[in-house]
Amino acid sequence: MTRIARWLSASALALLAMIVLLPQPASAAGSTPCGPQCVAINRDAVCWEKEWCAVQLVVKGTPAGSGAVLRYRTADGTAVAPGDYVAVPSAEISLPAGGSTHLRVFVAGDAARERDEAFAVEFLDGDGRVLATSTVTVRDPAAY
């Protein structure tokens, strides 16, 4: 009986390790689902201080019905709102049928000369869970 319990414990541990350590499928990394008939692929962006910056979404396929709406928000990284960018606590973007669309975030500027910083644009499902993240790199023109 002890051998069986040890074998079951080892098997459960091996299964857990496989689930945790296996790489995520491509659909989980870098694409945001927008319905059963389409996929919105999020892209990273590089922006300069003191300008509006576009974060692009490329839509492949056709959203269900008249289109899809995707929720998003920003999250601090090494760039911190409000000094480095204007935070977006919650917003929505409409996804067109095919083609691409973009959302705009404002990158603030300061007097400090600094290296590249980054913040995130998180795309959310209806329950507020993060589906995908685009990284926005903020560059200081004075540093280049």
Automatic annotation (TrEMBL):
Q: Write the protein's name.
A: Calx-beta domain-containing protein
Query: Which residues does UniProt assign to the signal peptide?
Result: 1-28
Keyword Signal carried by entry: yes
Q: Which organism is it from?
A: Catellatospora methionotrophica
Alphabetically ordered keywords of this record: Signal
* InterPro entries in the cross-refs: CalX-like_sf
Q: Which domain of life is it from?
A: Bacteria
> Which SUPFAM superfamilies does the record cross-reference, listed alphabetically?
CalX-like (SSF141072)
